[in-house]
Amino acid sequence: MLVVPGPGFRSSGRWKKFIFSSCPSFSRPIPPPPPSLRFLTSLQRISVFVDLALSSQIHRTVSHHLPNMATATTTETRSRKANGSANGVLKTKAVEYPDIQTIRDAIPAHCFEPTVLHSMAYVVRDLTMAGVLGWAAFTYIPQISDSIVRGLAWALYGYLQGLVLTGVWILAHEAGHGAFSKHQNFNDVVGWVLHSALMVPYFSWKFSHHRHHRFTGHMEKDMAFVPATKEDRQKRRLADLYLDRELFEDVPVVQLVKLLLHQLAGWQMYLMFNATAGPASKQREGGWLRVSHFEPTSAVFRPSEAIYVLITDIGLAIVAYCLYLASTVVGWKTVFLMYGQAYFWVHHWLVAITYLHHTHPDVPHFDAENWTFVKGALATVDRDFGFVGRHLFHGIIDTHVVHHLFPRIPFYKAEEATEAIKPVVGDLYRQEKGSFLGSLWKTFTTCKYVEADPNEPGALKWAESN
Q1: Which residue ranges traverse the bilayer (predicted)?
Q2: What single-letter DSSP state applies at residue 301?
Q3: Nearest residue to 249 (alpha-carbon basis) of 6, 21, 448, 43
Q4: Half-sphere exposure (CA, 13 Å, Cβ side) for 323?
Q5: Could you tell me which residues are beta bridge partners of residue 450?
Q6: What is the pLDDT of residue 301?
Q7: In angstroms, what CA-CA distances link 169 with 125, 194, 345, 440, 455?
Q8: Nearest-5° angle of CA 179, CA 115, CA 213?
Q9: Where are the beta strands (DSSP E) in 305-376?
Q10: pLDDT reported for residue 230
Q11: Could you give phi then psi for residue 395, rounded to 5 degrees?
Q12: How many C-beta atoms surround the C-beta of residue 260 within 10 A?
């Protein structure tokens, strides 16, 4: 008789054997399948289970500067004991969230002053590196006679060019926030050109990203990586198929496939379907097919923003036509090797950076009644990516907390601003020094859903992994 193991069985580690062999010592029998599934063969049922397991990760389908708030908020916060038990003993203590003006006053005034010369110097530097890499690859790699070595050389080029162009993406991101210069029209021209060159919808993303900053950590209105709740998870259990999805979720190969899909398709899913955004993030009524970042009348945007979305689409169309013209000269294969590889690497880094900034076992989310701007902005994590993070990615990984508090601080002054706010925010400042890519795997496989935090009313903490 086929049986379903209980929770203790799964946590003991023996569940892995269950997938490949029966376990008669566990005695909860499976009722017969519903009539709608009885006609399926065993192989077809397995296919259904795997498809549903793989589909669980991506779910849900203004101004970004909040006015100064002079009200401090007292709450309970969680922290793990430095020398706690293996289970991570928790302790609680009352802390006070400082108001936004107090934090701002701690930062030197010059940190809020971008300059055109300084910012444009980085644009010239990054575009020069991208141009040199592209020229070298186009000129020398085709001359390599050995096909394996030539393929490896193209792969290395794609990786390196992806790093450089991610830096270009970040500079356009600075322009979108108004941190590139004091001149907003100039910022928008620079951002539109750079993002369009990377096939990124500049104004569309600018609007939705501003709302992400405005409502960071808000379980209903945040625009990016709003986690599933315990209730969401229970609703999605495979009760009608009489099999617990957790049997699949913890299988390493399933986790790896889901992570690859997350990294390769996550950005496109967000742009097309508003994936991972909160249920109240839309600006007007519209079905799940009316939330694209490319549609001027999308529910993601206000009516007044439609013209800018159209300008965004024009920029993308120009670049797409240029790629087509290039393909008529050098062929689509060369266009993919020169441009397509870097395109996917940029999206990989973009998804990884954003995901890890807002997903961490110690980072809470908040319900609508208890969320505040400061709580949300401090519910982020600074991480370390070494030389690449500091120099090629312009410190966006290392100084993201202060960036969420004050997005108009230029990246080349964010490190000084970060040091200035640390004494003010105290333990509310979060930093992770571990391996960036190692953290991506660990976070993706452990931070699966949030549940109410009994130590902090209105907060939702990441559930402990089994």
Answers
A1: 122-141, 153-172, 184-205, 306-326
A2: S
A3: 448
A4: 20
A5: 229, 462
A6: 95
A7: 13, 7, 12, 21, 39
A8: 5
A9: 365-366
A10: 85
A11: 70, 10
A12: 11
Taking 70 as the threshold, does the pLDDT of residue 247 lie above it?
A: no
Q: What tokens does 161 get? A: 């060019």
- Tell me which residue of 155, 159, 161, 153 sits closest to 197, measured CA to CA: 161
With 0-12 / 13-18 / 19 or more C-beta atoms within 10 angstroms meaning exposed / middle / buried, residue 366 is: buried
How buried is residue 45: exposed, middle or buried, by Cβ count under 10 Å (0-12/13-18/19+)?
middle
- The stretch 17-32 carries a mean pLDDT of 42
Q: Would you state the pLDDT for residue 58? A: 34
* Residue 371 vs residues 208, 399, 454: alpha-carbon distances, Å: 19, 22, 16
pLDDT, residue 288, reads: 66
The HSE-up count of residue 405 (CA atoms within 13 Å, CB side) is 34
What is the CA angle 232-272-323, rounded to 5? Answer: 150
Interatomic CA distance for residues 133 and 164, integer angstroms: 9
Average pLDDT over the chain, rounded to an integer: 83
Would you state the pLDDT for residue 11?
43
Cα 389 to the center of its chain, rounded Å: 16
Give the pLDDT band (50/70/90) at residue 45. very low
User: How many CB atoms within 10 Å of residue 56?
Assistant: 18
Residue with tokens 């009644």: 369
Distances (CA, A) of 326 to 53, 151, 330, 384, 401: 41, 21, 6, 38, 41
Tokens 């496989």 belong to: 445
Tokens of 325: 């013209």
Q: Name the burial class of residue 74, with classes exposed (0-12), middle (13-18) and buried (19+) by CB atoms within 10 angstroms of its CB.
A: exposed
Can you tell me which residue has the tokens 């600018």?
Answer: 206
Please report the sign of the dihedral spanned by the C-alpha atoms of residue 259, residue 261, residue 265, residue 271: negative
Q: Residue 306: enclosing H or E segment and its boundaries? A: helix 306-330
